[in-house]
Structures are given as C-alpha cells and as structure tokens.
Write a structure and sequence with these properties.
The chain is of the alpha/beta class. It has two domains: 12-106 and 216-305, Rossmann fold (3-Layer(aba) Sandwich), CATH 3.40.50.150; 129-213, DNA polymerase, domain 1. 38% of the residues lie in helices and 15% in strands. The chain has twelve helices and seven strands. The protein has helices at 12-20, 41-49, 63-69, 106-110, 136-140, 145-156, 161-175, 181-191, 203-213, 216-230, 244-256, 286-291, and strands spanning 31-34, 55-60, 77-81, 95-101, 231-241, 276-282, 299-305. A seven-stranded mixed β-sheet has the order 3-2-1-4-5-7-6, with helices on both faces. β1, α2 and β2 (55-60) form a beta-alpha-beta unit. The longest helix has 15 residues, at 161-175. The chain is globular and about 65 Å long.
Length: 310
C-alpha cells in the first residue's frame, strides 16, 4: 500500500503574494518559476492566480515530487526533473518571478526510506534525487576523520564535530559501514553529552550530512546568481530559508546587489547600478507556527530586479 505523506506549505499566501506583486502591463504573458516544487503547494496557488496566458515552470530533483507534479493537468505548467542550479538555462530576462522554498519537505522527513530523519530507523541515504549521486552511507564508508569533521562543523555548526567524526570512523573500523539512521543517531548520541533542551544530539549532524551530500548551499549560490540573469526588470525574487546558513547566503546576496558598485580604480566613472531592490523580510505568524511547528524557523526575503541601465 502506498503511503501519502502529508506536507503543509510554509508561508503559502505570503510567498505567492510577494512573487506576483502588482503584475502590470504584460502580465498576461508572464512566466514564473517555482524553483523547488516539493509537493506543489506554492505552484497550485500560483496557477490559481495567474492569467490564462501566463506560464509556470517548476524544478525539483526528487522523483516523488516529479510524480506529484504529474497530477497537475494545466497547459500553463511544466516541471523539470533537475535542481534549481539549472535556472540559468532559461532565457535571459524572461522571468517575472522566482520562488525558492529551501530545505526539506515533510514527506521527505517522515518517510523512513529516505533516511533524512533520526526519529525513524531507515537506510542512511538523504539524497534529494535518489536516481543519482552518492548516499550518506556510501560517503561515510570511506570518508576520513578530517573530512567528516569539516562537513559536520561547517554545515551543521556542530562544536563536537571532531569527536563525532572520530566515533564514526572508529565504529566503521570495528563493525563495518554505518548503513542505518538509527546507527548514526546512536553514535552521535553516545558522543555528544550536552545539547540544548528539547533538541536531539543528532540534529546538527544529520543537517550537515544532508546539506553536504546534496550540495545545497553551492546550488543555492548558483541559483541566486542565475536569478539576476533570468529575471526581467521588476521581476520578484522570493526565498524562504529554514536555517542560518541558507538565510545568511540569501541576505548577503540581496545586500550585495542592492547597492551601486563603484570602481575604485576609476573614481570618476559612472557607478554600476544596483541589480536588486530589497523589499521585505517576513516570518510566519504565531497562528501558522502553532498550526505547523516546522514553520517556526522560516525566514522569507523578497527582492525586486531593477532595470539595468545600458
């Protein structure tokens, strides 16, 4: 029997409101991008609100998300089975809005077979796209203490990264490869003796390995740069982040491109105009967090593509 894992889209109406903005002249032919389709909450609301001649292009690496997208029978909609690093393959200046809902969806967390969660025992996989690439178990089977330390420290902001890495390698040498989420969570729990109240000791390690194995931060940086090329003047960039590493990248990217750039070597030259205008930063309401606790860490940042002077 197939299990239908439930997902509640975070900042649903706020994100779509920000994406569509006040679409002006030409809105009938606008093209929008849902860069992380997930289970299609944002896409479905976008389709319900854009005019008949507009288009929506979605991206996702997850084969289960692609299967969900196939249920949408709307000629205005298309889905690409690839990560949003491929956003730059769209024609320059052709997009009226890009929405990126980062992180991991509830069905991915709640399905033990995906290996994302320490709360359920399952294969230690964590790949967003299970049709390609290396699983976490495969990587841990040969990674050195230094490599594991670097990943857990940099992507999980885990202060016990070195002892965790040592314990993982020692366990591997003693009893063979670590292949299940329960095995990994147990190793971390036996190593990390102190943790914030209410937080599982394995939280940061699992986050780090997931981000690393899917190259999430590198892909985000590539997609943000690509958005500058594909967005038309006045087009909106809307990004929902769920942890500090993602949000820092988004915040710094918007700040960098929201100011004029002066060439210090040519002080009298005309400065390069700013490419983005920062519009707002939104957090989920108290009511949304009460109804969906997983939304509590979300931060949405909105920017608008400015007109580039010739």
């Amino acid at each position: 029997m197939t299990t239908h894992w439930q997902h509640t889209t975070v900042l649903l109406t706020e994100a779509v409101d920000a994406l569509l903005g006040s679409a002006g002249e030409g809105a009938q032919k606008n093209t929008y991008v849902d860069a992380t389709f997930g289970r299609g909450g944002h896409s479905r609301l976008i389709l319900s609100r854009i005019p008949e001649g507009a288009q929506l292009i979605a991206f996702d690496k997850d084969v289960e998300a692609i299967a969900e997208a196939a249920q949408i029978k709307d000629a205005r909609f298309s889905i690409r089975h690839e990560g949003f690093r491929h956003l730059g393959e769209l024609p320059a200046g052709s997009i009226a809005g890009v929405l990126m809902d980062l992180g991991i969806s509830s069905p991915q967390i709640d399905n033990p077979d995906r290996g994302f969660s320490f709360r359920f025992d399952g294969p230690l996989d964590m790949r967003m796209d299970t049709t390609r690439g290396q699983s976490v178990a495969e990587w841990l089977a040969s990674a050195s203490v230094d490599q594991i330390t670097e990943v857990v420290r940099d992507y999980g902001e885990e202060r016990f990264a070195f002892p965790i890495a040592k314990a993982i390698v020692a366990r591997r040498q003693e009893r063979g490869p670590i292949s299940s989420t329960a095995d990994l969570a147990g190793i971390v729990a036996s190593t990390v003796k102190t943790r914030e109240p209410g937080k599982d000791p394995a939280t940061r390690t699992f986050q780090a390995l997931r981000i690393f194995i899917n190259a999430e931060l590198e892909e985000l940086e590539q997609a943000l740069e690509a958005s500058l090329e594909v967005l038309q003047p006045g087009g909106r960039l809307v990004v929902i982040s769920f942890h500090s590493l993602e949000d820092r990248i988004v915040k710094q990217f918007i700040a960098k491109h929201s100011k004029e750039v002066y060439d210090r070597r040519a002080p009298f030259a005309v400065p390069q105009p700013m490419k983005l205008k920062s519009l707002e930063r939104i957090r989920p309401s108290d009511a949304e967090v009460a109804g969906n606790p997983r939304s509590r860490s979300a931060i949405m940042r909105v920017a608008e593509r400015t007109a580039v002077l010739a």
